[in-house]
Write a structure and sequence with these properties.
about 400 residues, Deoxyribonuclease I, Chain A, six-stranded mixed β-sheet, about 30% helix, globular
């Protein structure tokens, strides 16, 4: 029997001949190597994944090291909005990373939410309604070294009088000796000043209390001014004096402690001109100084039997990592969807070098805390930009009867 006549005679065709007629989906890889290449990450995808991994590690280190390791103070200088901007930028690029875009988007959304929480998104704000009690108007402000560089002290005092506050908490009641040969006006030593005569003239009926570079003015009765001893040797009044001035004031039928706070700066980039060794040592010393003053404030609050208002320049944008304890809670100003910012806000004459004035307002150094039995009915972080590098804190507190 001929092979062609055998049953299933066409089975003698080779596999290659049989496959030739099969339909191949359009666009499918022609070989296993091409299929593998289609699944391979391009350099852009690799870079995006690596950037996400690095950012995850940095964010975790920030949470773990802030307030615990002094070199991290340098990282704390970064504006808090950075922890939102970075994952948001990476999310914009995710659609281009086709092989991993789903799980990468999920990771970046989690990082964005964590960053938003750390940056201060979320309202802790003022008390709703109209609580019963005695309302106190408080004005807290960093005065830019008592308008040392301003040529118009009359405008400065007119601005203060317009606030019509019951209690003023003012910082930087001092001048500095500057080296005339240094174009950046490097500070050499603090200069103690006495403007008490003008303060009494501008604020008749107010009690004036001065502690180093801190000034409290009150037209309410002052009950006590504890812990306001100031060293008298040389310029120890500045370097060794307390950076938190407590004044106990009678409000209605209760005594309330008002804390006027100006914690020292922790990072001085200008010291790098003297070499890395001097730079790191100076910033370690500044950081240790800040921590001592912060702990001293916490200790005083813990032993204070009165309700308290704590306001001032804390020189950190990350106070959510530094709780004050003693039942205090932070407050956010109303009127903005973004986290509050207060520095740099120099719109006129101030002591900031020109380069710093060009920076946008990205940091919040000025904070308000109260104990839980006080109600904050109004809080705004604005005003004074024409006279200082800090926005002012305008506060209304209701003390229950």
């Amino acid at each position: 029997m001929a092979a062609a006549d055998a049953p299933g005679g066409d089975s003698s065709a080779s596999p290659a001949e049989e496959d030739t007629g099969r339909d191949v989906p359009e666009g499918a890889p022609d070989a296993p190597e091409e299929a593998l290449a289609a699944r391979r990450w391009c350099w852009g995808t690799r870079l995006l994944v690596a950037s996400t991994a690095v950012w995850t590690v940095l964010l975790a280190l920030h949470v773990l090291l802030i307030g615990r390791w002094w070199p991290w103070h340098i990282v704390e200088v970064v504006p808090p909005l950075t922890v939102v901007a970075v994952p948001l930028l990476l999310l914009v690029l995710v659609p281009f990373a086709v092989p991993v875009r789903r799980w990468l988007a999920a990771v970046l959304v989690l990082l964005l939410l964590a960053g938003a929480h750390l940056a201060g998104f979320g309202w802790t704000g003022t008390t709703a309604g109209s609580p019963r009690g005695t309302e106190v108007k408080v004005f807290a402000w960093s005065t830019d070294y008592w308008q040392m560089t301003s040529g118009d002290k009359d405008a400065f005092y007119a601005f203060l009088r317009r606030q019509d506050a019951d209690v003023y908490l003012l910082h930087e009641y001092l001048n500095w000796n500057y080296s005339s040969r240094d174009e950046q006006k490097r500070c050499t030593s603090p200069v103690r000043i006495d403007d008490s005569a003008r303060l009494h003239a501008e604020f008749p009926g107010y009690r004036l209390l001065v502690q180093g570079e801190l000034v409290t003015l009150s037209r309410l009765p002052v009950v006590a001014a504890p812990h306001q001893h100031v060293p008298t040797t040389g310029d120890d009044w500045y370097w060794k004096g307390s950076k938190a001035q407590r004044t106990d004031i009678r409000v209605g039928r209760r005594t309330v402690s008002f804390y006027n706070v100006h914690l020292p700066i922790r990072f001085r980039p200008c010291d790098i001109r003297y070499g890395w060794g001097r730079f790191f040592q100076a910033n370690k010393d500044q950081g240790d100084w800040w921590v001592r003053e912060y702990r001293g404030l916490r200790a005083d609050l813990a032993g204070d039997p009165h309700p308290a208002v704590v306001a001032g320049d804390f020189n950190t944008a990350w106070m959510n990592f530094y709780p004050l304890g003693a039942g205090t809670r932070p407050h956010d100003p109303s009127g903005s969807l973004l986290p509050a910012r207060s520095w740099p806000s120099c719109d006129g004459s101030c002591s900031l070098p020109r380069a710093w004035r060009l920076l946008p307002k990205l940091w919040r150094f000025d904070w308000l805390f109260t104990t839980e039995n006080l109600a904050v009915t109004s809080y705004h972080l604005s005003g004074g930009e024409a006279l200082s590098d800090h926005s002012a804190q305008q506060i209304r507190v209701v003390v229950p009867d």
